[in-house]
Amino acid sequence: LEAPRQAPALMNLTLEELIAGLQNGFRHEVLEGNVGYLRVDDIPGQEVMSKLRSFLVANVWRKLMGTSALVLDLRHCTGGHISGIPYVISYLHPGNTVLHVDTIYDRPSNTTTEIWTLPEVLGDNYGANKDVVVLTSGRTGGVAEDIAYILKQMRRAIVVGERTVGGALDLQKLRIGQSDFFLTVPVSRSLGPLGKGSQTWEGSGVLPCVGTPAEQALEKALAILTLRPALPGVIQRLQEALREYYTLVDRVPSLLHHLADMDLSSVVSEEDLVTKLNTGLQAVSEDPRLLVQVVRSRETSSGPEDETEDPPEMVSEVPEDEASRRALVDSVFQVSVLPGNVGYLRFDRFSDASVLGVL
């Protein structure tokens, strides 16, 4: 293995050189639907962040502050500096108080360092009510993994993409004796983001909230961000329907209270919403008939599997001949005796009392 090339000391670089290097690792734009997009391929350290914070706020962050939601793309971020973690987390931390987000153990110095959000940031934090999605891939590693995991544990971001590599926060290349061989060794580790004890992403990687191939992660994220603004309206219309139509009137206040207190942060699809609503509403009402469904029109169905048969018509007339009457009964009723001497009666259509009387 060749010896690694030594990068020039940051203190020897001019401001223009620092900005040029930073721009190679950052890309930002505002996508359709007023969704901010920030791609970060390398997490700068505290020294660079301190020098370039004004530049970043003026040229990147302020352009994203007015967006309705944010996508933080870490799919190509394979590492970074531990000291840069507080800067990324602080701008997305919605609280006004400092938060202990991780504790890092460093083997060479045998020391631990607590990572806290910054007491204040230059500019503004991203709005607490705005959704944030973090994109990951199988190449996302090190510091980028820690940031994704912290934001996920804070319930501040939805992680979309692939399980991350499960690497190390910091690596060191050590020469083996006087040879030209070097050994790459992890020298720092996370002791558990957000004080979770031994729980960490190292070795196993960060598991996304929504798993999808990395190349499809942005498309999936935009679909999620399209759904989420509609959720409050869905809840409001559901509350109105329960007030006006639900027959178990005494249970309506409890159901309305449950809907008002629902945590929708984990809802990323229509299926998620339906499952969450049905589980909660049926538990509160103790009524299995209370059911929420997604109904799509035939114009929006994607294929034959989405089509449903028309409901059978009610029988209103009785045929005159005996054979036709028997055929009618066979088409309406299915009767059999199942194993264990269990009777089975199925009917799919209702008939007038006069028809049943004749039959």
UniProtKB/TrEMBL annotation:
Domain Tail specific protease: 14-213
The keyword Nucleotidyltransferase appears for this protein: no
Single Gene Ontology BP annotation: proteolysis
Listed InterPro entries: ClpP/crotonase-like_dom_sf, Tail-specific_protease
Family annotation (SMART domains): TSPc
Residue ranges of the region described as Disordered: 296-321
Name this protein carries in UniProt: Interphotoreceptor retinoid binding protein
Organism: Phocoenoides dalli (Dall's porpoise)
Taxonomic lineage: Eukaryota, Metazoa, Chordata, Craniata, Vertebrata
Protein's gene: IRBP
